[in-house]
Amino acid sequence: MVALSDNFKGILKGWVLCAYQRWGWFFRGLFLCCFVGVVFVFDVVLRPLSAVVLGNFTGSVAMSIVLNALSRVDEGLARSLHDSRLPKPLSVTPFVYGGRVLWGGWFVVEAGGEVRFRVSALESVGLRLLDAFDGLGGVRLFNVDASLSVSSVEVVRVDELFSPGPTKFVIEFLSPIRFARRRTMRRRRVKYDFCPSMENIARSLAEA
Predict the structure, then answer these.
(1) Are residues 195 and 100 part of one domain?
(2) Among 50, 70, 110, 175, which one has the highest count of C-beta atoms within 10 angstroms of its own C-beta?
(3) Do 113 and 187 reside in the same domain of the chain?
(4) Span 151-207, pLDDT tens digits
(5) DSSP tag of 146
(6) What pTM value is reported for the model?
C-alpha cells in the first residue's frame, strides 16, 4: 500500500470538493458508480417499416432516439442529459447497417433492414432505460416508422473493469476522427494529429 503525504491528501480532498460543487448530480452518480455501481450495455435493433435515407454522423440520431425513449419514463432526466455540457453518464455508438458503420455520405436502408447500435449507461440512468425500452415497440426514424427491440442487455460491474488485465490494448475507432494538438504558441488555426496522445486516452478512460 502506498502512503500518501498529508499535503497530497489535502490537495486531493480540495479537488474532490471542487468537482462535487461544480458537477453536482453527475459527480455524485459517477462517484457511486465507480465504487458500488454497474454499467448497463444495451444492444438495440431498429427495423424501418419503409426505406429511409441516413446521412452524416448517425450517432447523434441514436442519441436522440435514446433520449426520446427515456423521456417516456423520466422527462426531467432526459432534458437534463440533453442540455448538459459535461461528460454524460450515457453514450451511444453510430448506426451499423450491413456490417458498415454509417458515418458521412448518404446511405439507403431498405424496408425491414436491421440497423443496430449500442447504448452504455451508468447505474441510475441504465435502470431508467430498462423501464424506457420495456414495451416501447417503435420509434420515428426521421419521417419513417421503425420497430425497436433490445436484443441483449449486459450488466458489467465497474470494479471488474479495473481488475488486473493485459498489459496491451487496442483501440478501434468506428468513424474517422482527429485530435486537437495542445498549443505551445499563439495560433489562429488549431493543429491536429491523426493519433491520440496517451494523455488524451488516459483522460478518456478516466471520464468513461
Answers:
(1) no
(2) 70
(3) no
(4) 999 988 877 766 666 667 777 777 777 666 666 566 666 666 666 666 666 666 655
(5) E
(6) 0.61
